[in-house]
């Protein structure tokens, strides 16, 4: 029996700080489209389907090709597997579009915008559904690449420990949190995203985890 992944207590405060910083969890309201951002986390597709059934949006775009970390799990591509899960969850196939080329968040946004425009679908508002710790970066990226779009961000509403348990790899989750925090700092300098305020205690939590060796996802 596999051991339950446990968040190290020495780093709990820092990890929780980054987790809370990245989760925007905007209040739900009706929008034109739900955009499910591809990743290793099937929870994105699960929550997108849930929001569709709750009437938050009438149309879905799943976007994502593969990364090295998703090829084995989603061999036909992230967006394709997400679509299959949503259909199995009762979402009508005709309301789902798939964008199957994107390999990063910027491409997720840009190629989704192009896909909708090519179909003649006018979009003024969208819900970005992502991994919990990807929300702030997805928001900052979309604000840069799709100015004027009214955006709300959402993720599976799991507490941190439950999310780690579902992923099954605490080190991976911490590394991803650290990597996304660095990208909030660096990507605006590179023109990939709009700047986001980062309070001093969040910066301190980031430095703590980098010093502790969680550096696999750093640029």
From TrEMBL:
Entries under InterPro entries matching the protein: Cell_Envelope_Assoc, DUF218, Rossmann-like_a/b/a_fold
One Pfam family here: DUF218
Superkingdom, natural source: Bacteria
Gene3D superfamilies named in the record: HUPs
Residues annotated as domain DUF218: 44-155
Name of this protein: YdcF family protein
């Amino acid at each position: 029996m596999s051991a339950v992944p446990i968040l190290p207590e020495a780093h709990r405060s820092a990890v929780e700080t980054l987790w809370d910083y990245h989760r925007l969890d905007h209040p739900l309201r009706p929008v034109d489209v739900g955009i499910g951002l591809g990743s290793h986390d099937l929870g994105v597709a699960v929550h997108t389907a849930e929001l569709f059934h709750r009437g938050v949006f009438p149309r879905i775009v799943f976007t994502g090709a593969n990364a090295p970390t998703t090829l084995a799990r989603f061999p036909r591509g992230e967006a394709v597997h997400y679509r299959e899960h949503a259909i199995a969850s009762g979402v009508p196939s005709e309301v789902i579009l798939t964008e199957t080329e994107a390999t990063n968040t910027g491409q997720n946004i840009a190629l989704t915008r192009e896909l909708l425009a090519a179909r003649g679908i006018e979009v003024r508002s969208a819900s970005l559904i992502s991994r919990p710790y990807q929300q702030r970066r997805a928001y900052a990226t979309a604000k840069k690449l799709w100015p004027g779009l009214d955006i709300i961000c959402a993720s599976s509403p799991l507490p941190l420990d439950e999310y780690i348990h579902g992923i099954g790899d605490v080190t991976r989750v911490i590394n991803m949190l650290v990597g996304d925090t660095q990208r909030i700092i660096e990507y605006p300098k590179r023109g990939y995203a709009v700047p986001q305020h980062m309070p001093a205690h969040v910066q301190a939590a980031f430095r703590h985890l980098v010093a502790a060796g969680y550096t696999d996802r750093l640029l």
